[in-house]
Amino acid sequence: MANRWTNTLTERDVTPEAAFLNRRQLMAGAAGLGLVGMAGTARAAQETLEPNVWEDITQYNNYYEFGTGKEDPAEYAGALTTKPWTVKIDGMVDKPADYALEDILKAMTIEERIYRFRCVEAWSMVVPWNGFELADLLNMAGVQSGAKYVAFETVLRPDEMPGVRYPVLDWPYVEGLRLDEAMHPLTIMATGIYGKDIPNQNGAPMRLVVPWKYGFKSIKSIVRITLTDKEPPTSWNKANAREYGFYSNVNPEVSHPRWSQATERPLGGGLFARRVPTLMFNGYEDEVASLYAGMDLKANY
Ligand SMILES: Nc1nc2c(c(=O)[nH]1)N[C@H]1C(S)=C(S)[C@@H](COP(=O)(O)O)O[C@H]1N2
Ligand SMILES: [Mo]
């Protein structure tokens, strides 16, 4: 399908030092990915887009299975074996199975999605992901009518993951979405960045990206996807329910108990970088606000 969700960034949102991918290359890539027929306004937005540089995206990570320091994942995640890779899809689906990732990829259409990414810690970046819509994968497995939520699980390999000997979180890392959130066309499974295979520190070989939610919802290195009728447990909520809710939609008006979420620090701006206002639903309000119509977003944080 046309990549109409790519983004709606303007020059104001651009990260200053992130101009290494020139616009011609970006547009050539976009055309190659089937964006030729994209609506004029979306194309205009695409032209003003400047993702963060590769180094920002791949050297400053949260992946606690490899340590809690921002540089730990880049240093240690190389040890993770990502081939072969199997994803168990089970629960309320017509075709529960252990799916080989290569078989999944043969059936999926890989697109480029340039998304804002906002960590709950109040830093942010812009990432040119390559991936496919989660809805396509769920439809492949056949979602049964009673399913209401999707649960996700990260691989757990103590031999390859030095961080899991510390009980920072209850391993394996688990996350969840409501089914309508999971089926939303903005929700993708990312398998690449800048047209290259996604690096291990970013969640190889396949990780979730939900751009309107805080980054911790975007669970990495997924080995299991379960359709269920109950709200699934999520790692950060289990660790501290007062600070991290199930929904975790980016919301400048709902503070974290220990800091404001009204502003954020875009990566790549240096130590004394300016802070910029955080946008409702991380800038995707037009696309996703209707999912939460009538909900109290303070109570459902
Ligand atoms: N399995 C797993 N997934 C995870 C995390 C983690 O520690 N383990 N960290 C989360 C957090 S807090 C963020 S901000 C993003 C960071 O993604 P990035 O390193 O690609 O920027 O991954 C999320 N997914
Ligand atoms: Mo995060």
TrEMBL record:
> How does it get modified after it is made?
Predicted to be exported by the Tat system. The position of the signal peptide cleavage has not been experimentally proven.
Its taxonomic path starts at:
Bacteria, Pseudomonadati, Pseudomonadota, Alphaproteobacteria, Rhodobacterales
One GO MF annotation is:
oxidoreductase activity, acting on a sulfur group of donors, quinone or similar compound as acceptor
What quaternary arrangement does the UniProt entry report? Heterodimer of a catalytic subunit (MsrP) and a heme-binding subunit (MsrQ).
Q: How is the cofactor bound?
A: Binds 1 Mo-molybdopterin (Mo-MPT) cofactor per subunit.
Residues in a coiled coil are none
* Cofactor(s) it depends on: Mo-molybdopterin
Per UniProt, residues of the Oxidoreductase molybdopterin-binding domain are 82-236
Superkingdom of the organism of origin: Bacteria
What is the documented function of this protein? Part of the MsrPQ system that repairs oxidized periplasmic proteins containing methionine sulfoxide residues (Met-O), using respiratory chain electrons. Thus protects these proteins from oxidative-stress damage caused by reactive species of oxygen and chlorine generated by the host defense mechanisms. MsrPQ is essential for the maintenance of envelope integrity under bleach stress, rescuing a wide series of structurally unrelated periplasmic proteins from methionine oxidation.
What family, per the record? Belongs to the MsrP family.
Cross-referenced NCBIfam families, in alphabetical order? PRK05363.1
Q: Which HAMAP family match?
A: MsrP
Q: Which organism is it from?
A: Pseudosulfitobacter pseudonitzschiae
Q: Which reaction does it catalyse?
A: L-methionyl-[protein] + a quinone + H2O = L-methionyl-(S)-S-oxide-[protein] + a quinol; L-methionyl-[protein] + a quinone + H2O = L-methionyl-(R)-S-oxide-[protein] + a quinol
- E.C. no: 1.8.5.-
Question: Does Metal-binding show up as a keyword for this record?
Answer: yes
Family matches, as InterPro entries: MsrP, OxRdtase_Mopterin-bd_dom, OxRdtase_Mopterin-bd_sf, TAT_signal
Task: Name the chain's protein.
Answer: Protein-methionine-sulfoxide reductase catalytic subunit MsrP
> What GO terms in the biological process aspect are recorded for it?
protein repair
Residue numbers binding Mo-molybdopterin: N61, Y64, E65, C119, T154, N202, R207, S218, I219, K220
Keyword vocabulary terms for this entry: Metal-binding, Molybdenum, Oxidoreductase, Signal
